[in-house]
Design goal:
Number of domains: 2
Order of helices and strands: EEEEEHEEHEHHHHEHEHEEHH
Distance between the termini: 35 Å
CATH class of the largest domain: Alpha Beta
Number of helices: 10
CATH architecture of the largest domain: 3-Layer(aba) Sandwich
CATH superfamily of the largest domain: P-loop containing nucleotide triphosphate hydrolases
Helix content: 25-40%
Bound molecules: adenosine-5'-triphosphate, magnesium ion
Strand order of the largest sheet: 8-9-10-5-11-12
Length: 273
């Protein structure tokens, strides 16, 4: 289906998926003697919700870290917007329009929800501290614009009531939502979510699922997510990459992956806490 439609396709529920946005070609990543990723290739299409699944230690987070520029693979190529990406620092990747959340929440506990979300816009701020001192008028205008964008995200994720609360005081599920807000504040083209629903109860998972779908729908954001809850993965994603011991063992629509015997053996049959 995909090969026959290089410019994209329409999903069963009527969402338009475009051409290839990101392509991983033959990626291999080693940590000393440990091969975290072995010769993996896959692509992510514009507007798509793409899942990466697999048992613990399969190499999923490592793959997200390659996409976000945190790790540079020993072998393989990363292509973004039809161009091969030179090895670059995570902040440079962020400037290209890729934002992420972390498997272990990475927020500033002592800072308010609002200020945490503002840090998501740092890569976009034109005026540095020095020029802010000299040109405070322009810096103020910029600050106002940033605040307006952030307020829109706060409304969108329904966290108005906690905007002044220090993040450290929030329950886990809301922290995850604030982390999503911070990533969205960077207005990413591609959003990477590493287990956005881990540790959540059913209701919190439903909320997060809805927000992920809404982000994709409202902002047209392409999303790559790692998730262990198979129900969530199958509901949310357009296509799924399956990893096991650093290798790709499956890639396709949720139905295709569900029917793949290698996947059933490696993952679906194995209990996961
Ligand atoms: N910084 C690192 N240094 C050394 N080894 C690492 C490092 N990061 C990951 N690994 C190893 O690489 C392999 C893949 O780890 P990774 O965290 O990518 O797996 P994962 O699929 O995200 O697992 P989980 O579901 O538990 O989060 C594991 O064997 C892990 O121990
Ligand atoms: Mg992980």
């Amino acid at each position: 289906m995909l090969d026959a439609n290089p410019e994209g396709y329409t999903t069963a529920d009527g969402r338009k998926i475009g051409g290839v946005l990101m392509e991983m070609r033959n990626i291999t990543l080693r940590f000393g003697g440990v091969k975290a990723i072995t010769d993996i290739s896959f692509d992510i299409r514009e507007g798509e919700i793409r899942a990466i699944i697999g048992p613990n230690g399969a190499g999923k987070s490592s793959m997200l870290n390659v996409i976000s520029g945190f790790y540079v693979p020993q072998e393989g190529e990363v292509w973004f917007h039809g161009q091969r990406r030179a090895p670059m620092k995570p902040y440079e990747v962020a400037r290209q329009g890729i934002a992420r959340t972390f498997q272990n929440i990475a927020l500033f506990d002592g800072m308010s929800v609002l200020d945490n979300i503002m840090t998501g816009r740092l890569t976009m701020m034109k005026t540095g501290l020095f020029s802010q001192a000299l040109w405070w008028g322009r810096a103020q205008a910029e600050e106002t614009e940033h605040r307006e964008k952030v307020e829109r995200i706060i409304d969108f994720l329904e966290i108005q009531s906690i905007r002044k609360t220090p993040v450290g005081r929030l329950p886990y599920g809301l922290k995850k939502r604030v982390e999503l807000a911070r990533a969205l504040a960077a207005e990413p083209k591609l959003l990477l979510l590493d287990e956005p629903m881990a540790g959540m109860n059913v209701e919190e998972k439903e909320d997060m699922s809805r927000f992920i779908l809404d982000v994709n729908d409202e902002f047209g954001t392409t999303i790559a997510l790692i998730e262990h809850d198979m129900g969530v993965v199958m509901d949310l994603s357009d296509r799924v990459v399956v990893m096991d011991y650093g290798k790709k063992i499956g890639d396709g629509t949720p139905d295709e992956v569900r029917a793949n015997q290698a996947v059933i053996d490696a993952y679906l049959g194995v209990a996961h806490d």
